[in-house]
Amino acid sequence: MNLTEKTLKKNTIYTGRIINVRNDTALLPNGKTAAREVVEHPGGVTVAALTPEHELLFVRQFRYPYGEELLELPAGKLERGEDPLESGKRELREETGATARDFRDIGKFYPTPGYCGEIIHMYFASSLSFGEQDLDADEFLTMQRIPLEQAVRMVLDNKIRDGKTQAAVLKVDALLRAGEIKA
């Protein structure tokens, strides 16, 4: 069965600094039409940076939509047209002060496929060196190191609620156990 929906009409209803919002009309596989609300987002990146002591680098920051501080892997928004790996390197350095000699692509994460086109590129980083954080003027966060085993437990206990962080932590743990990546 063909499940593809065809866009018949795009109607941008909001254009913002980070996102745009559309109200589209789509042709369904059964021949009927349906409204589809779409958030356009340039995408993002997250980096699971692992120390030789098997600690992941995390950042804690206030997330306005939830009204609380979240524990996340270093991450950020892609600039339009920016290479995801270069963005990941930049975000890791800015948020943690770390640079990595080795990076590995560990996949893409679709955080909200029901209404948003955002794609988050996930990377594993190792062979770390440390310098100073270089935060954006509107960025307030603290960095902390958490042993990988503890981070996995925190994901399973819902103490880490950020989806991209959950996915990357569990992927890194599985890839290390399978011998597909090395610290």
Would you kindly provide a written description of the structure presented here, covering whatever features stand out?
By secondary structure, this protein is of the alpha+beta class. It folds into two domains: 6-40; 44-177, Nucleoside Triphosphate Pyrophosphohydrolase. It contains three helices and eleven strands. It has helices at residues 84-96, 148-156, 163-177, and strands at 6-9, 12-15, 20-27, 33-40, 44-49, 55-63, 68-72, 75-77, 98-109, 120-130, 141-147. Strand 3 (20-27) and strand 4 form a beta hairpin. Helix 2 crosses helix 3. The relative contact order is 0.19. The model has no long low-confidence stretch (mean pLDDT 96).
| Average predicted confidence as pLDDT | 96
> Which word captures the global form?
globular
In percent terms, what proportion of residues is strand? 35-45%
Tell me about the largest β-sheet: 4 strands, antiparallel
Sketch the topology as an H/E string, one letter per element: EEEEEEEEHEEEHH
Radius of gyration: 18 Å
Count of beta strands? 11
Count of spatially separate domains: 2
- CATH C-level category of the largest domain: Alpha Beta
User: In DSSP terms, counting alpha (H) and pi (I) runs of 4 or more, how many helices?
Assistant: 3
Gist of the model:
With 183 residues, the protein is α+β, with helices and mostly antiparallel strands. It has helices at 84-96, 148-156, 163-177, and strands spanning 6-9, 12-15, 20-27, 33-40, 44-49, 55-63, 68-72, 75-77, 98-109, 120-130, 141-147. It contains three helices and eleven strands, in the order ββββββββαβββαα.
